[in-house]
Write a structure and sequence with these properties.
By secondary structure, the protein is of the alpha+beta class. It has a single domain, classed as Nucleoside Triphosphate Pyrophosphohydrolase (Alpha-Beta Complex), CATH 3.90.79.10. 29% of the residues lie in helices and 28% in strands. The chain is built from six helices and eight strands; from the N terminus they run H-H-H-E-E-E-E-H-E-E-E-E-H-H. Strands 1, 4, 5, 6 and 7 form a five-stranded mixed β-sheet that branches. Strands 3-2-8 form a three-stranded antiparallel β-sheet. Helix 1 runs antiparallel to helix 3. InterPro entries: NUDIX_hydrolase-like_dom_sf, NUDIX_hydrolase_dom. It comes from Cyclobacterium lianum. This is ADP-ribose pyrophosphatase YjhB, NUDIX family.
Length: 183
Amino acid sequence: MDSILLKKFIGNYRTPFDEEKAMVPDFLTLLDDPRAFSRDRKEGHFTASAWIVNRRRTHTLLTLHRKLQKWLQLGGHADGNENLMEVAMNEAREESGLTSLRLVDRFIFDLDRHVIPAYGTEPRHFHYDVRFLIEAEMDEPLVISPESKDLAWVGFDMTAELVGHEGSILRMLEKTSRSEILL
């Protein structure tokens, strides 16, 4: 998925969530910037995330992010790679050690633009996060990467409390609950 295909997918993206709909024009505008996939674009850039769930859709894999000190989905910077689906899969593998990862479909699962606070020499900036739904086996051992303090399979019934009722994660949780057809 290069930037041309990504522009088509984002342009055709449909969601019942108003806050997510409102972000689509900003994502499309960012795609016109040649630095959109580089962290050198200090005001904001693309990232990709993996919303990892088990096959039965009862648990999600979350990481306690070392810098942000929050439980989040796995993911990271594009670092020049326009194929955000590939970025999400690579980040999921690198941050979890899982080998059973399977992309549920080629389409975008969720979009979120969020602020990243200043850290060290990095200024405050936006992440334009493109998220993909990925399945994995829960019985596989997890490997914690240097970017994480912990990894855990979290039951859907406990996710909201663990993530502090963070809106975009609750939105992905709701989307997953609605996606019974994917079982």
